[in-house]
Design goal:
- There is one protein chain.
- By secondary structure, the chain is an alpha+beta fold.
- It folds into two domains: 100 residues, Probable tRNA modification gtpase trme, domain 1 (Gyrase A, domain 2), CATH 3.30.1360.120; 73 residues, Alpha-Beta Plaits, CATH 3.30.70.1520.
- The strands form two sheets. Strands 1-7-10-9-8 form a five-stranded antiparallel β-sheet. It has a five-stranded antiparallel β-sheet with strand order 3-4-5-2-6, covered by helices on one side.
- The longest helix is centred in the last third of the chain and has 13 residues.
- The radius of gyration is 17 Å and the shape is globular.
Length: 189
């Protein structure tokens, strides 16, 4: 009897050499397999959920919070996306059990790309209608938008650093677009 072992592959695992060729003008790195929970939280439960997670839920639209190794992104009036370390999905679900209208493990839905460097904002501006100037999108800004016609969640981290969450099925397309958009800045600093 032959026993086969499944090997998990990230959507962008083969892109590292192409990403590295863009540095230092633009630094791209996939953070695969993050735990991702989509929570629907009833009014009056925000404090209980924040306490259970050890990280406050964002109080204002289009913002993100961080704490206890988690990021919590505001997606809608009662909808949040919790990001945690790979493999922590079950533990996170148990923390919020019974506190939310719904808590769903959506980890396999998206991959995460960190984008930074002196031309990161320029690259994003090629395909995103959101004003990413630090005065308009200060650190902690979180928006659902289109980037090169792909639906993404975009988080401004501060300085020239951003996190882009994209559906796994669109990850290759978006990676190709990012590499193409960044190529003009290679050699500049």
């Amino acid at each position: 009897m032959t026993v086969s072992t499944l090997v998990r592959h990230s959507p962008l695992e083969d892109w590292a050499p192409r990403f590295a060729a863009l540095e230092p003008a633009v630094v791209l790195a996939e953070r695969p397999f993050l735990a991702q929970l989509t929570l629907r939280v009833a009014p009056g439960q925000h404090s209980a959920v924040s306490t259970a997670l050890g990280c406050p839920l964002p109080e204002r639209p289009c913002t993100a919070t961080a704490g206890a190794g988690l990021d919590v992104l505001w997606l809608g009036p009662d909808e949040y996306l919790v990001l945690g370390a790979p493999g922590t999905e079950s533990a996170l679900l148990s923390l919020v059990d019974g506190l939310c209208r719904s808590a769903v493990d959506t980890s396999a839905q998206r991959t995460t790309v960190d984008l930074s460097g002196p031309h990161a904002r320029d690259v994003l501006a090629h395909g995103c209608a959101v004003d990413l100037h630090p005065l308009s999108s200060p650190p902690g800004t979180c928006v659902q938008t289109l980037l090169a016609r792909a639906g993404v969640v975009l988080v401004a981290r501060g300085g020239d650093a951003f996190t882009v969450l994209v559906r796994s099925s669109f990850a290759g397309y978006l990676a190709a677009w990012l590499v193409d958009a960044a190529t003009e800045y290679v050699g500049e600093s």
